[in-house]
Design a protein that fits this description.
With about 180 residues, this protein is of the alpha+beta class. Helices cover about 40% and strands about 20% of the residues. It has helices at about 1-20, 30-35, 85-110, 135-150; strands at about 55, 60-65, 115-125, 155-160, 170-180. Helix 3 (about 85-110) packs parallel to helix 4 (about 135-150). The radius of gyration is 19 Å and the shape is globular. It holds the Pfam family YjgF_endoribonc.
């Protein structure tokens, strides 16, 4: 009989652990945070070549690179260190974050299914002498933390590029872990 109760207790513990790991906390609500920030997600930008916006592999989603495109199709373009400021680059990275969130919501149906932002690759169109890529990509990272809290903190690379498609100021891709 002792063995039965011990087995039952262990089973209940594993079920409890599994439930807490497979569902978001009660106070976790990135959708509400977007409303609080006054952000309305646009229709996700469509791929401009032969690729898809994102691929899900198990509980990971790999999002293709996106840039700072407004809903009307215009983009923030330019080269950091030449004709665009760090502040404008930061704005571009933040706009790119909004675009990536729209893709993610389209794929998941609800951003509350995001378990954590895992990895970000931020590419900055810049002059070879420009060395403040992290300050630019902070526009993306800061918004991820604003929306997802600690779950928005991520590993990241912020690198300079000689050019980016259509002259866009930044391009950012990311990996996201989602609840099952």
């Amino acid at each position: 009989m002792k063995t039965f109760y011990l087995s039952l207790l262990c089973t209940l513990c594993f079920i409890s652990i599994g439930l807490t790991q497979s569902t978001p906390e009660a106070d976790y609500d990135p959708e509400a945070k977007l409303v609080e920030l006054g952000i309305t997600l646009p229709t996700p930008p469509q791929p401009v070549a032969n690729y898809v916006n994102g691929v899900r592999a198990g509980n990971l989603i790999f999002l293709a690179g996106k840039g700072p495109r407004y809903a009307d199709g215009t983009e923030i373009t330019g080269k950091l260190g030449q004709n665009i400021s760090i502040e404008k680059g930061y704005e571009g990275a933040r706009l790119t974050a909004i675009n990536q969130l729209s893709v993610l919501k389209d794929m998941l149906g609800n951003l509350n299914k995001v378990k954590r932002i895992v990895k970000v690759l931020g590419m900055v169109n810049c002059d070879p002498s420009f060395v403040d890529q992290p300050k630019v990509i902070n526009g993306f990272s800061d918004l991820m933390v604003e929306v997802f809290g600690e779950k928005g903190r991520h590993a990241r690379a912020a690198v300079g590029m000689a050019s980016l498609p259509r002259g866009q100021a930044v391009e950012i891709e990311l990996v996201v872990e989602v609840y099952e």
